[in-house]
Amino acid sequence: MIEQDVSFKNYPTFMQVATACVFWMVHLTCFFVLWVGVSWIAVLICLALYGIRMFAITGGYHRYFSHRSFQTSRSFQFVLALLGCTSAQKGPIWWASHHRHHHKYSDTEYDVHSPKISGLYYAHMGWVLSKQYKHTETALVQDLTKFPELQFLGHLYMLPPILLATATYYLGVGLDNTFPALQTSGPQMLVWGFFVSTVLLYHGTFCINSFTHLIGRQRFHTGDDSCNHWLLALITLGEGWHNNHHRYPGSERQGMYWWEIDITHYGLVALSKLGIVWDLRSYPQIIYAEAASNRLAS
């Protein structure tokens, strides 16, 4: 277990308490669906914003910023960073630094979020609220800190989600005034389009940190508890092929075979056809040979 320092200097700071309050307020606000009601258009926007922002996390924060598994222009790099910021999971530099730390120390006492070491709750979301991981490990992300626009998003990471929340509210207002038959409103669109969508996005992302180290199957002997799980892959647009990923983090695709659905990979391939991204890295043949060997041995 992670040792807890109970000295006064490690008591929660005002900003830490405020962050925790905002985090739980986002969750509690979802209960307002009981008052604002539901409409098909609100649910559609909820799912659309979940999908778009999950892609920004999986394709942007994870496969691009954390692992550099493909190349893109500086302008589209910023688009990925900005969309990722709207997920309310801080900036890309902070996110990538802790993810790289996780790979370096996976399922050891130094891991950021190992359910084996620190328990399910802490691995799932407790670490996000911990003072221990408040700051960016800049030594691990020097390739990212050279971009001032990414630094800017890191400092003002709450601005994009606030702007998105405002936009969903006024979208609901506009639809209510223009197409009243849709039976939506500003408050309804805000609750479903932003708050419900964001909470689903939180826990979809967090499932990879926690449950993919608890359930599923291991194709490779990686020295940690990473597993592959088809359902978690569907929820997270392909991130559930976690054991594959831990065996070869440099691959842009995480599903190794056609039956391992990886929606993020399909999206990045589509973007590569348009020339927006390029140099998508994949598993080398030696990894496929290892997978085949392990399958025969089992």
Description:
The protein has 298 residues and is an all-alpha fold. It has one domain (42-297). Mean pLDDT is 93; it is low at 1-10. The longest helix has 27 residues, at 40-66. A two-stranded antiparallel ribbon has the order 1-2. The protein is globular, with a radius of gyration of 20 Å. The protein has helices at residues 14-29, 33-36, 40-66, 74-85, 92-104, 115-118, 120-124, 142-145, 148-155, 159-178, 186-210, 230-235, 242-247, 263-273, 285-297, and strands at residues 71-72, 277-278.
Looking at this protein, list some descriptive labels.
disordered N terminus, mainly alpha, single chain, globular, 298 residues, 15 helices, two-stranded antiparallel ribbon
Strand order of the largest sheet: 1-2
| Count of separate DSSP helical elements | 15
Mean pLDDT: 93
Number of domains: 1
Reconstruct the topology from this structure.
Blueprint: H1 14-29, H2 33-36, H3 40-66, E1 71-72, H4 74-85, H5 92-104, H6 115-118, H7 120-124, H8 142-145, H9 148-155, H10 159-178, H11 186-210, H12 230-235, H13 242-247, H14 263-273, E2 277-278, H15 285-297
Antiparallel strand pairs: 1-2
Helix pairs in contact: 3-4, 3-5, 3-11, 10-11
Give a short overview.
With 298 residues, this protein is mainly alpha-helical. The protein has 15 helices and two strands.
